[in-house]
Amino acid sequence: MMTESQQRDTIVEVGRRIYQKGMVAANDGNISVRLDADRLLVTPTGLSKGFMRSEEMAIVDADGRQISGGKPSSELPLHLHIYRKREDVQAVVHAHPPYATGFATAGIPLDKCVLAEVIVTIGSIPLAPYGTPSTEELPRSIDPFIESCDAFLLANHGVVTVGQDLRDATFKMERVEHYAHILFVARLLGGEKALTGEAVEKLYDLRQQYGGGDPNSGCRIEAQADDCVCSPEADDMDETEFETLVQKVLSAVQEKINNT
Predict the structure, then answer these.
(1) Do 23 and 120 fall within a single domain?
(2) I need a labelling partner for 224 at 20 to 30 A (CA). Which of 14, 54, 142, 201 fits?
(3) In Å, what is the CA distance from 2 to each residue of 31, 121, 171, 204?
């Protein structure tokens, strides 16, 4: 287990890393780690994440009351909410990586079964509805997902990742941004091709085989391919449901034709 001094140094390291990678600008973003059951170490407000010093970190109690250090980030309520909901979470990173935040701003979740590494390590990356930053609206916006997912897009805002430690949460942030970048390129090339439900199940089995368990238990993503076995079989549908599905397919085909 890391000492408080080591945790401070790691926050500084993570801040520089996300700043250098362009995931935050100016004094954007915030980082926190759970020191123990009663205390959190949080980045201070108003400072660039690329130029922090370890002694500038703030320590707050479980209710957000400042114990020492600088004034904590204005997004502290979001961090506190996550720690209260998830006892397993030891660190939280909030940043504004351009590609992932672009998807969040466009209202597009990263929830398709496209990239094997993401399916195995993170799972679905949902889009939380917009909540005003630095208010209680923002923490409440992630309530539908926080108990089962480790990464979230915040509508018109940014990205939040959680982890077993700071490096884990940071690597998830990097993976979310890398995934969003890949999807962006794929759409420029005509669109991503989703994996089948069978392929997705094999990836989950592979993770469990190596002791990783089910990523984000309760947040398993559904494959989006045409032959996805996760989709309802036509034989299991009643006539109305089947007709509705056919109409959706025909509409999608017609829209594709009109746009070519």
Answers:
(1) yes
(2) 142
(3) 16, 24, 18, 31
* Residue 39, in any domain of the structure: yes
H/E segment holding residue 36: strand 30-36
Q: What type of residue is 44?
A: P
- CB burial of 8-40 (b: ≥16 within 10 Å; e: otherwise) equals bebbbebbebbbeeebbeebebbbbbbbeeebb
Compare 215 and 106 and report the one with higher pLDDT: 106
What letter represents residue 114's amino acid? V
- Are 128 and 250 in a shared domain? no
**Residues 6 or more apart whose Cβ sits within 8 Å of residue 241:** 232
pLDDT for the residue numbered 249:
52
CATH number at residue 11: 3.40.225.10
Cβ atoms of 193 and 114 closer than 8 Å:
yes
- One domain, residues 21 and 104: yes
CB 89 within 8 A of CB 162: yes
Largest separation between any pair of C-alpha atoms in the chain: 67
| pLDDT per residue as tens digits for the range 11-42 | 999 999 999 999 999 999 999 999 999 999 99
pLDDT at 258 over 80: no
Q: What is the pLDDT of residues 227-245, one digit of tens each?
A: 332 222 333 444 555 455 5
Please tell me whether residue 49 adopts helix, strand or coil conformation: coil
CA 60 to CA 58: how far, in whole Å? 6
Which one is catalytic: 75, 137, 147, 255? 75
In the residue annotation, 75 being an active-site residue is answered as yes
Backbone φ, ψ for residue 142 (5° rounding): -95, 0
* Residue listed under structure tokens 């720690």: 83
What Cα–Cα distance (Å) separates residue 199 from each residue in 45, 148, 202, 229, 233?
A: 45, 22, 5, 9, 17
